[in-house]
């Protein structure tokens, strides 16, 4: 019996152990906690749910899909330029660019092939295409990892324990699936964001006095 290697590869790429430095970024959540916009597990779940429905979790999935579908390097460069332009703040731009560069470097060295310096969702989409991984599974696992990483970040900032964090991740499962499915039928013309509080939080974080995270 042959085993499809795709899920195993994605588990490694999107693992907290993969050297992209995801642990160093909070996506503006640190400021939201400092300003008491997110104070507990229920608030965290609502914040992440909005990102999945209306914000960066949704748009990153669309960018990943567009990168996977790019027919040539010129089209890929256009997707990457769009991803960078869509970052609402200096720190959010650094977050996607630095994680993307780290992902490209590690994936090229371990799996072979040549990946240019790309923003993070674009890098994952390009790598999935290069290695023949299923786009639907890649989208789902990437979006799940996005949410999981922010829950982990929040657990260093809020009184949210491991069990509650896992409950939040479970509760957000349907929205993770919806974001992945939406990206499958979307293109760059579908990009939009209405999570203004999250965007502003990422801007304020740039001058926040006391910080744990880089964004």
From TrEMBL:
UniProt-listed InterPro entries? UreF, UreF_sf
Taxonomic superkingdom: Bacteria
Q: Name one GO molecular function term.
A: nickel cation binding
Q: Which Pfam families match?
A: UreF (PF01730)
Coiled-coil positions are none
Give the subcellular location: Cytoplasm
Which keywords does UniProt give here?
Answer: Chaperone, Cytoplasm, Nickel insertion, Plasmid
Residues that span the membrane, as ranges: none
Q: Name one GO cellular component term.
A: cytoplasm
Sequence similarity? Belongs to the UreF family.
Subunit and interaction comment: UreD, UreF and UreG form a complex that acts as a GTP-hydrolysis-dependent molecular chaperone, activating the urease apoprotein by helping to assemble the nickel containing metallocenter of UreC. The UreE protein probably delivers the nickel.
Q: What's its job?
A: Required for maturation of urease via the functional incorporation of the urease nickel metallocenter.
Return the protein name: Urease accessory protein UreF
The organism's taxonomy opens as:
Bacteria, Pseudomonadati, Pseudomonadota, Alphaproteobacteria, Rhodobacterales
């Amino acid at each position: 019996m042959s085993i499809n290697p795709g899920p195993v590869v994605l588990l490694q790429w999107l693992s907290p152990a993969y050297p992209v430095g995801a642990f160093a970024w909070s996506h503006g959540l640190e400021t939201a906690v400092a300003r008491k916009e997110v104070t507990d597990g229920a608030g965290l779940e609502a914040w992440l749910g909005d990102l999945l429905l209306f914000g960066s979790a949704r748009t990153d999935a669309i960018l990943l899909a567009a990168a996977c579908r790019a027919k040539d390097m010129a089209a890929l460069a256009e997707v990457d330029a769009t991803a960078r332009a869509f970052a609402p703040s200096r720190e959010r731009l650094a977050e996607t660019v630095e994680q993307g560069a780290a992902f490209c470097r590690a994936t090229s060295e371990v799996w072979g092939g040549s990946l240019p310096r790309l923003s993070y969702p674009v890098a994952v989409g390009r790598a999935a295409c290069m290695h023949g991984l299923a786009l639907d599974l890649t989208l789902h696992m990437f979006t799940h990892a996005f949410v999981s990483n922010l829950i982990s970040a929040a657990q260093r900032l809020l009184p949210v324990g491991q069990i509650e964090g896992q409950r939040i991740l479970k509760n957000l499962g349907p929205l993770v699936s919806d974001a992945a499915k939406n990206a499958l039928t979307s293109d760059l013309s579908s990009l939009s964001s209405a999570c203004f509080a999250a965007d502003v939080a990422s801007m304020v974080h740039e001058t926040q006095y006391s910080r744990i995270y880089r964004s």
